[in-house]
Predict the 3D structure of the following.
Amino acid sequence: MDFLANVAAGFIGLFNAGGATFMGLVTGILPTLIVLITFVNSIIMIIGEDKVEGFAKKMTGNIITRYTVFPFLAMFFLTNPMAYTFGKFLEEKYKPAFYDSAVSFAHPILGLFPHANAGELFVWLGISSGITTLGLPISGLAVRYLLAGLVVILIRGIVTEKITFIMMGRKGVN
Amino acid sequence: MAYNAIRLEKGKGGWGGPLVIKPDDVRNKVVSVTGGGIDPVSMKIAELSGCTTVDGFATSVPDEQIFVAVVDCGGTARCGVYPKKGVFTVNLTPVGQSGPLAQYIKEDIYVSGVKVENVTLAEAGATVAQAAAADTGSAPKAAASQSTQSSGKFGFITKLGKATGAVIGKFYAAGKMTINMVINNILPFMAFVAMLIGIISQSGLGNIIAKAIAPVSGTLPGLLVVSVICALPILSPILGPGAVIAQVVGVFLGLEIGKGNIPPALALPALFAIDPQVGCDFVPVGLSLGDATAETVEIGVPAVLFSRLITGPLSVVIGWVFSIGLF
């Protein structure tokens, strides 16, 4: 009997630990997150997608903003996965590079703007919670993740654009 | 060519349906967006209805030609994209209304958990559902323009009141949207993560795994190796869906950082090391959202996958450079 009781205690212990973790996540992260996301959603609704589209189109002209500002606007205002519809503003040859660039920004944006891809929040939250456990601030990490993310999506956009051009050239597609 | 009406029922644990639908001369393509060729359910649908199958990863089909889209989505993106476009959607994974586009997933356009045996010919005389028009958001816009028209004659105070009301309405809608997002996307993942952490940390399993992967994840060269593996074109589309793997690995690395087994300075490179596969499962759908042609999709998929081999490890180095001076 004692043995069975011990097994049961161990079994429940697993889920008590899980429950404590869940409680920590809900009380520690959700309140601020909900208010922050509500705020950003309000801003997006007040500005309206039409105005963003007009500005975003101007960003497609040169290679630098095409793979930094343009995907940032797409991800911030339309969020994952509708952000990729901004591809319609680009010529066919730029579309794969834009997709690559935009989708690669779906996680670096999370540190500061979690509304953009809330379903995949734990890519950021998982690692940053380790920093919180150590008692260190995560705001610096969030900013650097976003900035490094912009550099990464720029490079990714340029590399994918070149690869696309080469492959289109081989296939004889204009 | 004669087309037959078919009946699609939800499978075990599935949601939505049953759909009784019939292809016509325009809508006659079964698009299989499942990765790894055309799956048996798509083939069965095509065989019974008299349609042709198309591999959605190899080529793209205009929405108005799609009879049914077959996806295997874990609940983030693909399962909602096609219903939003007004395309009948079969999800092989038993997932209900979930993801950021959950509002578009309805019983009359979407059915999930479908197995080959759930695809049957419709009995004679069954009512056939028509493909719905894509949601263009025209209804709310019409309502909005009406309200501005009627405000012409009223004075300043009325205008101010209406403007305030409109803004408050937007704030309220934003709050509602946020709570839905939390319930549909964030809380389920928190439950999953909490269970995982509970079991891993309490059972001692965590220490075993930590010892095994510490030499890999605790150093910059180790993270580079991880990023190369994640970027391999054969693995990246499999590792991608819902970023579940990236999230689980992220949670795990976070635990190790918290325990001091991985230096906090490696947090930023680690964020990039677990992510070179981001969106690799979604390339054809993402491109078709941007109105890309079939030729572009054919070239775009391999272009993105190959690019990741170069830019994946590079992103880890960039992350490392950016973390200099932090912590």
